Amino acid sequence: MKTTTVKGLIIKETKVGEGNKIFTVLTEEMGKIQVSAAGVRSFKSKISGACSLFCYSKFIISKGKSMYNVSSADCIYNFFTLRNDFEKLSYATYFCDLTGSVMVEQQDNSVLKLLLNTLYYLEKHDNYSVIKPVFELRLMTMCGFAPLISSCNNCGEKDEITYFSADDGVVYCSKCSPRTNMNHDTYNAIFYILYCDDNKIFSFNASGEVLSQLNILSENYVAAQTGNRLKSLDYLKNNFQII
Ligand SMILES: [Zn+2]
């Protein structure tokens, strides 16, 4: 049987039958794929460690009837410390969940890089009010939901941008919209998040007011563009104060 080697991060796992699991894996080579691992819940399984949620592993897979089957798996990196902190675990779960829900099959590996970078960062930092909106806005942009923020959607004005429309993914200046939901620094923060280099996404300072506006806007944007609300986000918001 023809086999393929892929590297990927397990973003979702589901127990099936006696000892099997089905995973959603975000791979470098094939985008998001579904794989089935037989007997992986048995204590005798040699691949159970590499086949766990948040494990970044090298898999040998073959095409089955409805999804791929795993024959071998080696763990490259396990974000195990995230499991020791309930708050970090909740964020990691939400980020993986959101990725799985907005990403279509077969995309390039930029989303995988974003998710890996975010989980690495999450292991070492707890500035959640920065991490969450940065991840949400970058992910949406990479998955084809980039907001158009460079000028007012009505008149083209580039200054005095004061309203972000989550429904339409556009911005308006103070003359064109009677409503205001962001100040100048928040607008600059969104601009930075969308256009900075991959390795600098978390490198900015913002006041409490900016972070508060940023979190509201990014969450509203995700909700408006995806049209669904994830249980993992409700869980996060019910159990922890984001800002
Ligand atoms: Zn305008």
What does this structure look like?
The strands form two sheets. The chain has a five-stranded mixed β-barrel with strand order 1-2-3-5-4. The chain has helices spanning 86-102, 110-124, 128-142, 184-195, 208-226, 231-239; strands at residues 3-16, 20-27, 31-37, 55-63, 68-78, 148-152, 161-165, 170-173. The termini are far apart. The protein has 243 residues and is of the alpha+beta class. It has two domains: 3-78, OB fold (Dihydrolipoamide Acetyltransferase, E2P), CATH 2.40.50; 81-239, Recombination protein O, C-terminal domain (de novo design (two linked rop proteins), Up-down Bundle), CATH 1.20.1440.120. A hairpin with a 4-residue loop joins strand 7 (161-165) and strand 8 (170-173). Helix 1 packs antiparallel against helix 6 and helix 3 runs parallel beside helix 5 (208-226). The protein contains six helices and eight strands.
